[in-house]
Structure formats: C-alpha cells, structure tokens
Amino acid sequence: MDYKAIAQQTAQEVLGYSQDTAGWKVVKTSKKITVSSKASKKFNGNIYRVEGIIPQSTSKLSELLYLPEHRVTWDKSLKVFNVVHRIDSDTFICHAITQSFAMGSISPRDFIDLVHIKQYEGNRVIISSNSVDFPEYPPSSNYIRGYNHPCGYVCSPLQENPAYSKLVMFVQTELRGKLSPSIIEAAMPSNLVSVILNAKDGIKVLRNTSGCACHPKSHSSFLKKK
Question: Which of 29, 37, 62, 159 has the most Cβ atoms closer than 10 angstroms to its Cβ?
C-alpha cells in the first residue's frame, strides 16, 4: 500500500473541503462554535464541518491536535491514541479507540488512521487523516472497527490576531455496526462541539502546567525518536 500517495491525496481532499462553500447546512451552534453538514460523497452518511476560534497560535495548536502526549490529555472522546508506525517525519499511522457517547447508545470504536501534517502558505497547517488497512493491527473482537473517510483539521492564523487560530474540522466517519442513521445524526453535532471545547480546555491546561512548550517543527523530532 502506497501510504505516502494516500496521505498526499487525503491532504488535497481536506484542502478541497475547506474551499467548498456550497451545500452546507448549519445543524448546531453553541458557544461560538458552528457545526454544518451535508451528504458525503464517500459513504451513505454525512460530512461535518466544525468551526471555532482557538486562543493559541497555529503552530502550537496543530501540535496539540496530533501529538499523542498532548492529544490524550484533552480529547475526552478518546480512550487511546497511539502512533504505531511512521512513514516519514510528517506521515504516520495511529491507532485510536473512542469512548462511548450519546449516553452509551454508541459504543466505543477503534480506528487505524493514516495521519499527515502539511504546511501551506500563510502558516496554515492541515492535519489530514484517512483510515487504512494495516496488517499489524487487524480488527479485534473487542471493538467495532470504524472507518474515517478523508477527515482533518485546518488551522489558520486569525487575520486580526495571529496569536489566535481559526480551526475548521472536517469529519466523515463511518461508525459501522448496527446503528440507526438517526441516532448518529442526532448525536454527532454535540459530540463535535465538545471536541472543540475540549481542545480549548487543553490549551489552558498546557499553558498552566508547562507553558505549552511546543515548537513549530517538533513533530519531526518526535517521530524520529519513535
């Protein structure tokens, strides 16, 4: 499997989603976070777009979103988030296990995702992910194996205040199992708002405990140490 090619294609798709302004319907607004959706072209479900402003620079925010030692401290939707294989300094495979949500009506899933970090002009960073087959981590009987079609975070400096970032998250997750689409559509918007709120809380915690000692290129050194 050509993981590098898949990673590049996924990044381009997420970039395309960020430039696509047609057909989105706002399904939830809460605490200055907006969730929109429309029918996915990848599977029989929705793609969600979640937008919010984060009080952190783009380089530091992007690391909060994917470095495992940060991610597990703030993302309450996850039980596990581990890098299991590296392809290069910007591309790696992660194993994630989610918590149950929607008051337990949606049980935990596990995912094997190819994650890629790419910087664009204007200090914009896209962290894209797409589920892949990885023989070392086959599906187990403990969890339903979900599938993430091209997803990702787009982090951009806020024009009026570059110390803040605009975060746009795209999610099109096939949870699989025997779930009614109506349950997913009812639960997903609130769950996605919580992810952004948890990221904001994570920023505060890191500031208070360590000054958020992140550096713009530290993802490269992190992966090389693995």
Answer: 62
